[in-house]
Amino acid sequence: MAISAFLFLAALLCSVLYIVHKVHRNRKRAQVLLQQLPSFRALPSLPVLGSAHLFLDTTPDGTLRTIVNCHRRYGKNLLMQELCNDFKLLTCDPRVIEQVLQAKTIVKSNFYHFLQPWLGRSSVVSSGERWHNLRKVTNPAFHYNMLQDFLPTIETQAAILVRKLVQHVDGPDLDVYEPLQYFAMDIICETAMGVRLACQSNPRVQFVQDSEELVDLIYKRIFNPLLASDLVYACTRAGRRAKATVRSIHQFTRSVICERMKHMQDVPVSRESERRSTFMDLLLQTRLAGDELLSDDDIRGEVNTFMFAGHETVTSCLAFALYHLSRNAHVQQRLYDEIVSVYGSATEPVALTYATLTELKYTELVIRETLRMNPTVPMIGRLAAGDMVIDGVTIPTGTEIMINIYVMHNDPHLYPDADQFRPERFLEDLQPYSYLPFSTGVRSCIGQRFAMLEMKTALVKLLSRFRFVPCEEENALQVKANLTLKPFRGSFVKLVDRSMHYDV
Ligand code: HEM
């Protein structure tokens, strides 16, 4: 008994000494770095707990609000301390962001590790040679020629969406998020995976709920240093929920992969031309160095990545766009005029082609302005790997830098009247690195052109048929951030049918 009490006390003492040493070392390092980088300021922090006391509001929109307030109050470049006063840098300053993104060795920050149980070591998470190999496989799937082929599918799904929305004409406020979500899911599954899910008619409620819950859990983990350790996390209620949702999502993804594999077997190689090669087919046929096929886990990770990145971002952007259009009648009218000038005033425009869609310059500005005010990827992270230099100072290897795109895009010094929806602002030159909805450089979004094509097509189809008018004030837009920025409690508009009302 006495021996075990002694051992316990000794272990406790060792742990306390270790923590004291770590806290002391980290605080000293932070101090040195701050002296070298005068453009950075430290967020208030406590010994051991760091700045955790600033992040007590864990409501869905709370963390975003806290970060915005920190930047407003303390500046564009911050040093934030975490558990044991480990620290990371936060920035929304284009001048600093440019230097961070120019580092040659690109490593994603530690929080991407929290995505691994779900996405595996997929292209969004991995670095180095593995990432290069994956990107070589996925790039051709989103080549210009493939995008042309995707257009009929996107058009068909947009027509279904319009039919779904017609029943809400002249009705009460409508939350457009959910219908847009199923629209985007159908498109990414059919174009990239070659699998027709028909979610618009047969909603996949479980998958949607699981994905929503999982990203919420992951986001909370990013800002709670107590949950950083995998071991500790696995023992918490949140960790167990995360595990259950990942299992359920993987089941769904597996069924999508199996369906495509079955289709590939059903259409023999001799009739290959009947089978359009999709992103999924490329994954299934890929051989890595050493002639090794991608493992089942690799394929599942990549499919999960593209299913998520390919629908969640587009859904939110379209939901935000329709909301802003409903509140800015003059912008909506100008957008509609452009659509009429290219496609005529039919409520069901036909002959959408890649070429005609590129004529829609104002539509592009509307999407750009939407992604400025509401960048659907609000924050990205990098990890210094030795060659990252800020203001002449080499950032210590292993330091994380969080780039806050949302705060930068809403900075009134960079965007005068930042809270006004004004697409025309993009006719003027921007400060370099001040607009990064798709990030930039080699790790920028692979789906950027695909997303633009999908969003433009949706806007043409929707605007040709409906006029969007403001919802009731009680349903005004609020935003929340988990991994993506999305409407909190919905994105509401009212619909007016253009085929019945000519007073546009
Ligand atoms: C409005 C739509 C979209 C926005 C705003 C957006 C934004 C972004 C951003 C900011 C990144 C960089 C992430 C980081 O550095 O951690 C990214 C990466 C990525 N996006 Fe998108 N995205 C959109 C649509 C799409 C679509 C439609 C797809 C798939 C078809 C897609 C697939 C990806 C992938 C796979 C990556 C990882 C690329 C890499 O690291 O090599 N995204 N996206």
TrEMBL record:
Family matches, as Gene3D superfamilies: Cytochrome P450
Membrane association type: Peripheral membrane protein
Keyword Metal-binding tagged: yes
Entry keyword Oxidoreductase: yes
Broad class of where this protein is predominantly found: endoplasmic reticulum
Keywords noted in UniProt: Endoplasmic reticulum, Heme, Iron, Metal-binding, Microsome, Monooxygenase, Oxidoreductase
Cofactor section: heme
GO cellular component, one term: endoplasmic reticulum membrane
Molecular function, one GO term: iron ion binding
Localization: Endoplasmic reticulum membrane; Microsome membrane
Ligand binding (heme): 445
Family per similarity comment: Belongs to the cytochrome P450 family.
The protein's name in its UniProt record: Uncharacterized protein
Naturally occurring in which organism (per UniProt): Anopheles epiroticus
